[in-house]
Write a structure and sequence with these properties.
single chain; mainly alpha; Lysozyme; 5 domains; 3-stranded antiparallel beta sheet; two-stranded antiparallel sheet; globular
């Protein structure tokens, strides 16, 4: 029996026996040679990282959100104290107690260091010194003064996540098995969201698997009507795609998981900088402005979650897991209002919402329609319904060929995106997506934006003043607005020309670039936000670990400038782009690189740049923004649904391969094959080809 037949047999057995057999059968299938998973344990647990794993096991199982550890952020074996709070202690008082304890141990470390090797120490000072062992030299203890960190306990949140996980664990197991991925990956939502499908983070990650919008759009539908990140089933399939991609690019599961938090580019850069894929060396030795506590600890916290999940009774005793979700799905035959579906299907609206969490409030309040081909979920008892029957029951007047279009609104002094989102009854992310701007972008008075078709739910206008953002000294032509605003009917302030809309889009891009450049220049904060209560932890985000150091990003391309002032050419870049971002002429760059007139630059080629006008960090920001907008425009209309392997033939190149797949851009092909020279492919070379489809074609 081949592996495909085995998987099908396993899937049938899993559907019959569900939880009792799921993990055992999947593990057996993987050992028989499925996909990327090997017979050996793919989730290595190096002895050198065991102290870190044990630290997170204690955080997840021994103390709840009314307690926390005061510890060294680099040596997790050094645990100074366990602080306990009464459940009714306000956050301000908790913070005061944490600060006092931190100051106490800082003073103790200084006292020990000043005393030297032969100095007399109090019992408390000796206890602290013993925590460090041979590592506790005076110099090391002085440096540790700034590394005292507080970690809130998470046992209550982890326990709740174990109970909730029963709803989706079988689907997660089947999804991973069908892609040949390690079954252990199924515990990742413990770390990301405590298995809370409606979780949002402060930086905009959402859902069970905590996808950022830009990364989620690669694999899911995210627009003004649908956000598949909030659907545990669709987001599980997307997470499996992303993890599989990370593994292809990085080669090991410890690195692939670290990239889920730190970004594929960041981990690839760490691997290339140190010349190793050893997770221990990377965690212990790699230094970067963005590779902070969260990135260093993501893999070990995953290992801790894996240990607890597999031995939950040992840590928490018997737990009554929630029952598996059951439903049926049917494709919506056209664009249909939620009200029409509720009327025809005769389903309680609240129940329909619960079954379809990806449909946004704009759908339920009538501002948007349920999209055509959307896979609508119904209760399992309504088995008589089908797509054909639904199409027959809906009248022609209830079925539409397109989505509702947005209205136009002219931004007034004091308007913010958050305030407008509240007025129109939509999430801020939805309004930002509708206008293809960032949720944190400031709004310039006079700009015309798209708003939901229905009237605002609040009449009063916002009065909050928005501080102006100063752009860096970059030539106006240096900002590339890839996605220009779409001009609709006249707004409250009058019609807007296409030229004005494009200018406003460029100005938003410039403001975003300025903010990003300012962030790039700023030194990393000494202490990332450390919540002291459950409420603060929830406010920062659903992750059980610390706040993320950087945004999730699946693009593995290194857009940075090397120490020698060179860059590696990425796909869809020309000398003209570099000249624009640098405020120079292409002729100057040709002269600097000894390039003949009209000679193109090749993907992967090293190019020397001139930073006499623009600083390297500003250039990097503009370069990243260009690619971010380019990719956002593409994934607004397409999504990745899988991969296939193509064997290169004589005459093949990156260009011929993209022509084989009409919707596949060269930059996406390069991302899936970052170490291949697509300009010079040799016959027999294996090339991973992402399969894409238009958004909406499959719901």
């Amino acid at each position: 029996m081949n592996s495909t037949a085995l998987l099908r047999a396993f899937s049938r057995l899993i559907r019959r026996n569900r939880r009792e057999l799921a993990w055992a059968l999947i593990a057996a299938g993987l050992m028989l040679g499925c996909g990327t998973a090997a017979a050996d344990d793919p989730m290595v647990r190096p002895p050198e990282l065991e102290r870190d794993v044990q630290f997170w096991i204690r955080v997840y199982s021994q103390i709840d959100t009314n307690a926390g550890f005061l510890h060294d952020q680099y040596n997790l074996g050094v645990l100074y104290d366990t602080l306990h709070f009464a459940s009714n202690t306000p956050p301000s008082e908790r913070q005061r107690l944490v600060d006092e304890a931190r100051a106490h141990y800082a003073a103790t470390l200084r006292q020990i260091a000043d005393a030297g090797e032969g100095g007399t120490l109090s019992p408390e000072e000796q206890r602290v010194k013993d925590l460090w062992g041979a590592e506790g030299t005076p110099a090391r203890l002085r440096s540790a003064v700034d590394d005292i960190r507080f970690q809130l306990g998470q046992a209550d949140r982890f326990r709740s996540g174990l109970i909730r996980s029963g709803t989706w664990e079988t689907h997660i197991a089947e999804t991973l098995a069908n892609l040949g991925l390690p079954a252990e990956l199924a515990v990742l939502p413990h770390v990301e969201s405590s298995f809370n499908p409606s979780a949002y983070s402060k930086v905009g990650a959402a859902g069970l698997w905590q996808f950022m919008r830009s990364t989620g759009r690669r694999y899911m539908r995210i627009d003004g009507a649908v956000d598949d990140r909030l659907d545990p089933f669709r987001s599980t399939e997307a997470a499996a795609q992303l993890l599989s991609y990370n593994y292809r690019v990085l080669g090991t599961w410890p690195l692939a998981l670290t990239a889920y938090n730190h970004g594929t580019e960041g981990v690839r850069h760490a691997k290339e900088t140190l010349g190793t894929d050893d997770i221990v060396k990377i965690v212990r030795s790699y230094t970067s402005r963005t590779f902070g506590f969260a990135s260093r600890n993501f893999y070990v916290s995953f290992l801790a979650a894996l240990d607890i999940d597999r031995n939950s009774e040992k840590y928490f005793g018997p737990l009554p897991k929630e029952h598996e979700a059951h439903f049926q799905e049917l494709e919506v035959p056209a664009y249909v209002s939620a009200a029409s579906l509720e009327h025809i299907l005769k389903i309680d609206p609240a129940k329909l919402r619960d079954l379809n969490p990806a449909l946004l409030p704009a759908v339920w309040n009538g501002a948007q329609r349920v999209p055509k081909a959307y896979r609508l979920r119904l209760p399992p008892e309504d088995a008589e319904w089908s797509s054909q029957l639904l199409a027959q029951r809906l009248s022609p007047a209830e079925m539409f060929t397109g989505q509702r279009g947005p209205r136009r609104y002219k931004v007034q002094q004091g308007d913010t995106l958050a305030a407008l989102a509240e007025r129109y009854g939509v999430p801020i992310e939805t309004l930002a997506s509708l206008n293809r701007i960032r949720a944190s972008a400031p709004l310039r008075p006079g700009r015309v934006i798209s708003v939901p078709e229905t009237g605002p739910v609040l009449v009063a206008a916002a009065t909050t003043k928005v501080p102006a953002v100063s752009a860096p000294a970059v030539p106006a032509h240096a900002v590339s607005a890839v996605t220009a605003a779409i001009v609709a009917p006249p707004s409250p302030g009058g019609a807007v020309s296409e030229e004005a809309a494009q200018r406003e889009s460029a100005e938003d891009a410039a403001a975003a670039a300025a903010a990003a450049a300012k962030t790039a220049k700023a030194p990393a904060a000494a202490v990332i936000a450390q919540p002291v209560s459950a409420a603060q932890a929830e406010a920062l985000g659903p992750a059980l670990g610390p706040a993320a150091d950087t945004e999730q990003n699946a693009d593995p391309t290194d857009y940075g400038v090397a120490q020698d002032g060179t860059i590696r050419v990425a796909a869809v870049e020309t000398l003209g782009h570099y000249a624009d971002w640098l405020g120079l002429t292409s002729a100057r760059l040709r002269e600097l690189n000894h390039l003949k007139f009209r000679a193109p630059v090749r993907i992967g080629q090293r190019v020397k740049l001139d930073f006499s006008t623009v600083k390297p960090e500003v250039f990097e920001t503009l370069r990243r923004e260009y690619h971010r907008e380019l990719q956002a425009a593409y994934f607004a209309a397409h999504r990745i649904v899988g991969t296939e392997v193509y064997i290169a033939r004589a005459g093949d190149s990156g260009w011929t391969l993209t022509q084989r797949s009409g919707q596949l851009p060269i930059w996406l092909l390069q991302q899936y094959n970052p170490d291949l020279d697509l300009a010079e492919l040799h016959p027999g070379t294996q090339i991973v080809m992402p399969r894409v489809e238009e958004v909406g074609s499959g719901g």
